[in-house]
Design brief:
The chain has 552 residues and is an alpha+beta fold. The chain is built from 17 helices and 26 strands. The chain has a six-stranded mixed beta sheet with strand order 22-21-23-26-25-24, with helices on both faces.
């Protein structure tokens, strides 16, 4: 049976030239692609998706204009031997796969596809005979529409030069290329080593300590006494006096960096001193609730909480900043509660002088929005709603309201109203309205949060107007928690649904999210997903939270 416009032997020869040998998968793929082409409307400009990386993409390239190079062949490696040809504009097309039941009529062919015997035991001559004889009769064809997000081609966008390897790469990948971020698939075996960094920076000279008398130091110098002291005893811009020689030698500084008074006047292209770079970073990084002091000490600037509250860190931006060579920034964890006057982060340049281009690159990553903010927690007006017919009827004593009262006390919140209602959608919704009328801005509810048929709390809250619902979280304990928002004329009411585990465990997902809510932080599905790492509580016999790994 022919494969497209080619006889079986012609296509077999084409496969040998293109693929290296006439692989059975390529021959089968030829029949599949030809069948799909016959069922596309004449004149269709089509693209292809192969569901395997093996052989089948080559069949598409042999029989059509589609290639891996022009990106008209895509591979979605689902592990199935199937191919889809589709209109590149509408997505309408045909999918061809192997009908395994029909293939059973061809035993050698079946054993090959299903990996029933090793290659050395296969009868290659019989296998090729069966492939030709079966043709496309063993194929199954479906009319399909490819998802819209796979249509069209994304442009690579702007290209820049990686400051680490010096090669061009898409700017969207970050401050350095993906290979230099750690995705390089090879190790360099030979070739020239990277050029060594210059020993000195223009405008700076290294001189023996005794020759530094009367000259200006280029950077801070630190003294360390283990367990007792660490700090700067010489600062940048300080003039060295004869009395300083002994102290320099005591800290092991027999050669020092001084400003070169014979150097030409610096131009705009002169490297940035570590203090200047740190100050530039700090001005971009610090947001509301965060302060820092100048000048930098030892080339470093520390950020301090200006008030007690929730530290917010733009984690993605911090990562991108730290990908820029020769700069660094370290912080406490995002969403950490911090106290006024406590340090939250620090930044500096790594070398004494930072190249201006590198400085500009780091500042471009930081942009105009702050990297760190500290937001004070508001004094919430809470409502506590307990649902459950068994609790309402007194069969089970409520323990949730006392727990919530203690949590409210810890965060200086006021509880305006508490209520216990049965598992009745109308009664729950009516109580929510009364909570609104009482003036609450945070509703905490428990009961009816699981998958039991009688659990109607979530539907009842939706009846009351709950929106922006996020239900189910990667945190244990607390997987069946919920957050949402109740629109109200006086301002939106935050809603937190707490599962019954809060009655048993001292700390749950509620303790991770409550500070965020009180800081007015909008909780997203992405933020919840990130809680999965560190979201497993060890239920220690002696709880040390928050001084533990839970939620971090």
């Amino acid at each position: 049976m022919n494969i497209g416009n080619h006889s079986f032997q012609e296509f077999k020869a084409m496969a040998e030239r293109f693929h290296g040998y006439a692989a059975p998968g390529l021959l089968l793929g030829g029949y599949m692609v030809a069948l799909a082409q016959r069922h596309l409307p004449e004149g269709t400009l089509f693209e292809a998706i192969s569901e395997t990386r093996k052989c089948l993409p080559d069949a598409v390239q042999l029989l059509s204009l589609c290639s891996m190079g022009n990106n008209w062949v895509k591979v979605r490696d689902l592990g199935r031997y199937a191919v889809t040809l589709y209109d590149k504009y509408t997505g309408k097309g045909v999918r061809v796969s192997v009908d395994v039941e029909k293939l059973k009529a061809w035993p050698e062919y079946y054993d090959w596809l299903m990996k029933k015997k090793p290659k050395k035991e296969q009868d290659e001559e019989e296998l090729l005979r069966e492939i030709e004889a079966a043709g496309d009769d063993i194929c199954r064809l479906e009319q399909v529409t490819v998802h819209s997000e796979l249509l069209g081609h994304a442009h690579s966008g702007a290209v820049t030069v990686c400051p680490v390897c010096g090669e061009g790469y898409p700017s969207k990948d970050g401050p350095i290329c993906r290979a230099c971020q750690g995705e390089r698939y090879y190790g360099v075996q030979s070739g020239e080593a990277p050029a060594a960094a210059p020993a000195t920076t223009p405008g700076v000279r290294i001189v023996p300590a005794e020759d530094a008398v009367g000259k200006v130091l280029a950077h801070d110098m630190t003294r360390i006494v283990p367990g007792e002291f660490k700090g700067s005893i010489f600062t940048a811009g300080q003039t060295v006096s004869p009395g300083d020689l002994c102290r320099l030698q005591q800290i092991g500084r027999f050669d020092v960096a001084v400003l070169d008074d014979e150097a030409p006047v610096p131009t705009d292209g002169a490297p940035a001193h570590e203090n200047e770079a740190a100050e530039c970073f700090a001005r971009r990084m610090a947001g509301p609730g965060v302060r820092y002091s100048l000048p930098p000490k030892e080339g470093k600037i520390d950020f301090v909480a200006e008030c007690s509250g929730l530290l917010s860190v733009d984690v993605k931006k911090l990562e991108r900043f730290n990908l820029v060579p020769d700069v660094m920034c370290a912080s406490r964890q995002d969403a950490t509660l911090v106290q006024e006057g406590k340090k939250v982060a620090g930044t500096r340049a790594i070398p004494l002088f930072l190249d201006r281009a590198r400085l500009g690159q780091a500042l471009a990553v930081l942009g105009d929005e702050p990297l760190f903010t500290v937001t004070p927690l508001r004094r919430a007006r809470m409502g506590v709603l307990v649902t459950g017919t068994e609790v309402f009827n007194g069969l089970i004593e409520d323990k949730f309201i006392p727990v919530m009262k203690e949590k409210a006390r810890q965060y200086s919140c006021d509880i305006l109203r508490t209520a216990i209602v049965p598992d009745d959608r109308q009664k729950i919704a009516a109580e929510v309205q009364q909570m609104k009328d009482a003036g609450i801005d945070l509703l905490v509810t428990t009961g009816g949060m699981s998958v039991d048929p009688g659990d109607v709390t979530r539907p009842a809250l939706m009846d009351a107007g709950l929106t922006d619902i996020l239900y189910g979280m990667p945190v244990l304990p607390g997987a069946m928690a919920m957050t949402g928002r109740l629109p109200s004329p006086s301002g939106d009411i935050q809603v937190m649904g707490v599962p019954a585990c809060a009655l048993f465990f001292k700390n749950t997902v509620f303790d991770l999210l409550l500070p965020r809510l009180l800081a007015g932080r909008r909780i997203t599905r992405g933020e919840l997903a990130r809680l999965g790492e560190g979201g497993y509580c060890m239920s220690c016999s002696v709880c040390t939270y928050p001084k533990c790994g839970f939620g971090k």
